[in-house]
Amino acid sequence: MKNCFIILVFLSSIFACKAPEVQEDSRQKKEIPIEQAILNDPQSFYFIDFNSYPQLDPSLPIGVFDSGTGGLTVLDAILKFDEYDNALGKKGQDGLADFSNESFIYLADQANMPYGNYASEENSELLIEHILKDTQFLLSDKYYDSRESPLPNIGKPRVKTLVIACNTATAYGKEFIEDFLAKTGIEMKVIGVIDAGSRGALENFGLEEDGTIGVMATVGTITSKGYENTLIRLIEEGGYSGDIQIYNQGGHGIAEAVDEEPDYLARNLSAPRSDYRGPGLNHPEFKIDKTLLDIYNFDMDQNKILCDVDNLNECNILQLNDPENYVRYHLVSLMEQMRSIPNAQPLKALILGCTHYPYLIKEVKDILAELYDYPEGDGFRYRHLMAKEIDIVDPSVNTARELYVYMKENQLFNSTGSMEDSQFYISVPNVDNSKAELDAHGRFTYAYKYGRKPGEIQEYVKIVPFSEQNIPQETLARLAQMTPRTFELMGLNLEPAIP
User: Fold this and answer.
1) Domain ranges of the chain
2) Confidence (pTM)
């Protein structure tokens, strides 16, 4: 049968067409300002002398970056990866982590996150600049002790390869990073998560099998068509002839809620606020439908939903205030869109196309089970659109596999290193930059974060080590539960629970 690709992007057609044009127009072979600073300006903070870079040195760590803490799910998958015999180098588990002698440098660009909003704010060029600055940090030897430190330290290890543990950064920035590295003259592999996740989804299909692949990702990733285009390419290359349909759901607000961004989640509130940016009753793109309230089945406890009246059905203002409720809204929205399309094939695989989403994988599975059993009339509302067992695809494992194969083929494994030498960094607003505009929480204001002009090269942020002071306790608790090996390496502590 002829492949049928049904693309449902929950964005306006304006955003859907503009973002790719911005990306293509801004990708130039000539050096853009941040590249000029890194490559040619010895007076710039960002300058690196690549003539002395220790490329392809097996003793160096592996660099991993994301827009926030979500990429730690990718790192955790790499740390736990065991598909090869370490002594023989052949396929087969041996009970030892395949990267056990490797160390890692992890960067969370928390101050500039979420990356998924830059496209919808029509500022993809600034996003590309952030991504190149992330790359510069991993390649450089500088970091700050704290946000108050006036001068950076020198001595951070360089890296031997790069893993983009961020779907939006992969979609918008991977080719820019590769072009930039070509200009440096050094040889370095760049691995992104999108190809890995797409291959994982297609493992659920025979060559002639029908079905649907759902992609739930940030608005920016969906707008970029990164997964959509990659899936289409892999389907064609793999000779799949079944009716494989692709449905996209922009998970507006999920990553922000996981990272406790105050515009999307504020646990101290008991009533709606004016600066909320998540889905709502009157949101132009992500509208909460009152007729679907029973299906959403929002958790109402402990102010996880904010309403202007006591009765949810009579709300004039309704705001989500819990990560699970964001997931509920988006999964119902995905199924409703599929329900509106004739001949929609059953959902067989759902790609979690944002590294923050695996933190909520239990909630995703539970909500899908609820929707599968949701009654309607004498039957079920969505059961004809859902496989009984839907594969939840976390691209992390596929990314670890690609990294292993590359390092083995290029003899880059460290025989004497240790995971215990890994280092973890996070960006914080640069309080010494007089142009920075901060809110009451000490974070960039929304208007400043997305309104800055690309090409004005300055230190918007300082990159400092992870600490209990720059990560919310709720996030630390989630890391401890979902990524225990990574949390152990980070050396952070949870505050004792208050009885």
Assistant:
1) 53-193+397-468+477-485, 196-394
2) 0.81
